[in-house]
Amino acid sequence: MEATEELITRDAIPANDTWDLDNLYASGEIWQADFQSLESQMQQYTSFQGTLAESAEKLKACLDFDMEFSRTLEKVHTFAHLRNDEDKTNNLHQGNYEKVTRLMTQYQQARSFINSEIMEIPEGTMQGFLDHPDLELYRLYLERQLRYRKHTLSKKEEALLAASQEIARAPQSAFGMLDNADLKLGTVKDENGKEIAITHGNLQSLLQKQDRRVRKEAFETFYQAYEEHKFTYSTLLASSLKKDIFYAQARNYASVREMNLFYENIPVEVYDNLIQTVRNHLGSLYEYFDLRKRILGLDALHAYDNNVPLVKDLLWNMPYDEGVDKICEALAPLGSDYVSTMRAGLLDNRWVDRYENKGKRSGAYSSGCYDSNPFILMNYLEDNINSVYTLAHEAGHSMHSFFSNRNQPYIYADYTIFVAEVASTFNEALLTRYFLNQDINRDMRIYLICREIDNIRGTLIRQTMFAEFEHQMYQAAESGQPMTVEAFQAIYKSLLETYFGEGVVLDPCLSLECFRIPHFYFSFYVYKYSTGISAAYALADKVLNGGEKELSAYLNFLKSGGSKFPIDLLKDAGVDMSSPEPIETALAKFGELVGELQALTA
Question: Which of 301, 308, 267, 307 lies closest to 287, judged by CA?
Fold first, then answer.
């Protein structure tokens, strides 16, 4: 199916091209019944208040109820958000999604006493509870909760903090509305003289145009919009920092970074090690920029020259079913069980909502819950190679969830963000190796190598620069420095100079980029992209170059869910993220690819 001018409506899409949500809820009426049941059960939380310290049995009764409620709520939410994403113009589905979102806030408030009461149980009593056979399932869960003793407040204070969450989202929500709804990004004339409205969605396409005038004007016009609103953007970002600092101080953390790393038990050395290792290996990146400058025949390389393809008019056509075939062939090293399960999901079992329709959410993702199949939202295009890679990526997430849900109890099935990108990026790495091992022409080989270079550059190196920016701006804010437009831009400009080197001309407007990154409203999140791709490349090398032991270790990682902290899960799989080695493996691969590109284009 190819992109068309007029998008078809949802009801015109063949059923086999859509996901099958019947194993979640066969009808809206059944979903509504579960929703109403959750509403009526919410008040039962009050019956457990003040009882958790009385006995192991009463603590278990509360945790049993909480887990069952959470499990059903997750199912109700998953169905609502998937239906809403099918068609954003459907008022019924939009209303149901808003109802569930509100219910989730009420749920957080209703259960907010649980952690406080657990923390108030005397240590001797709690040790007896932990040894009680009735609480065997919950032992690890409770041990993880008890780590928060010094960071947990009284029940009244916890209820206030829970109730404040909606207000605290104001900077992020305002940024989203300004950036996606109110901001006018201007227009640019394309290579044929046609005036094009610049959007967040088409900016990358415009920066890939062979006509340099189009790239330059699109880049400058785009950032002019941020120049005109930079004081609003800086105020929103500064407010988000203040919000995070408030919560960190209220919960007795030394810093916002410590608070965010504490949840996944990530040593601060992992964060610092990532930044230092990438900084130590920027030479290959500078070589790549010099190579782009030579191949493109430019006197000076600007940031808007770094996305244009180095080969022109590359033809690609791969229908969805063929794309699935190629992905399955590429992932054959993972074994027949993995491949056959994935193939059935992507084709016969309808895990995937394949094509774009009017009102459908853009982009792609993998989603689902413990009691459902994993589901993949796609907007697949036959003439775009990125669609095949996106499908392989999301299939990695889905298979990770599939194995975790079938091998772990509900309470330990969900894996954290730190490891979430490993399985997806692993699949992409194997797909690239598969394509490069085929009989392909020189232009296709250059294209695939550049794609892999840019993937590492964007996911490992660029996100590490973002991570360093986050660390520096929070350090400045926590030390009492006023976070103004000039303060943000000064930090960002210094990092641009480091990460781009002397081979790229840094246009003054590029320092405004720090105001347009939505991830900065989710503090200390972006570094996980960098660690994720590093772990994925290290594991791919081990599986492809190893034997049954290495494959078994990787598959066991996929089955482990959240049964251990992420650093320990990766160690079991054969990768130690507290050392520079996995990051160096990915950066060495980057250097090899740059060398191969240089040889191909000499």
Answer: 301
Name 344's Cβ contacts closer than 8 Å, sequence gap at least 6.
none
**pLDDT band at 166; cut points 50, 70, 90:** confident
394 is catalytic: yes
The DSSP bridge pattern shows strands 352-353 and 375-377 to be parallel
Q: Which amino acid is at 292?
A: R
Output Rg (C-alpha) for the chain, integer angstroms: 25
Question: Three-state SS string across 252-318, please?
Answer: CCCCHHHHHHHCCCCCHHHHHHHHHHHHCCCHHHHHHHHHHHHHHCCCCEEHHHCCCCCCCCCCCCC
Tokens of residue 364, six digits = 């792609």
The H or E element spanning position 546 is none
Asked if pLDDT for residue 503 goes beyond 50, the answer is yes
The answer to whether the CB of 366 falls within 8 A of the CB of 398 is yes
Residue-range domains of the chain with CATH:
23-168 (1.20.140.70), 171-313+444-521 (1.10.1370.20), 320-418+531-600 (no CATH)
Q: Cβ(143)–Cβ(130) under 8 Å?
A: yes
pLDDT tens profile 217-267: 999 999 999 999 999 999 999 999 999 999 999 999 999 999 999 999 999
- Tokens 């190579």 locate to 291
Helix (H, G, I), strand (E, B) or coil at 354: coil
Q: Residues near 492 by Cβ (< 8 Å), separated by ≥ 6?
A: 469, 511, 513, 514
> Residues, the chain, total?
602
Global pTM exceeds 0.70: yes
Q: H or E segment at 95?
A: helix 91-110
Cα(540)–Cα(551) distance, integer angstroms: 10
CB count within 10 Å of CB 361 equals 17
* Phi and psi at residue 196, to the nearest 5°: -115, 130
Give the residue-averaged pLDDT of 425-454: 94
Within a 13 Å sphere around the CA of 75, how many CA atoms are in the beta-carbon half? 25
- Out of 74, 287, 394, 428, the active site residue is 394
Instruction: Please check whether residue 216 is in contact with residue 231, taking contact to mean a CB–CB distance below 8 angstroms.
Output: no
- Indicate the residue type of 511: S
End-to-end CA distance of the chain: 38
Helical segments of 479-580, H only: 485-500, 527-545, 548-559, 566-573
Q: Calculate the alpha carbon distances from 105 to 102, 162, 575 in Å.
A: 5, 8, 37
* CB atoms near residue 102 (< 10 Å): 11
- Alpha-carbon distance of 293 to 52, in angstroms, equals 66
Confidence (pLDDT) at 2: 42
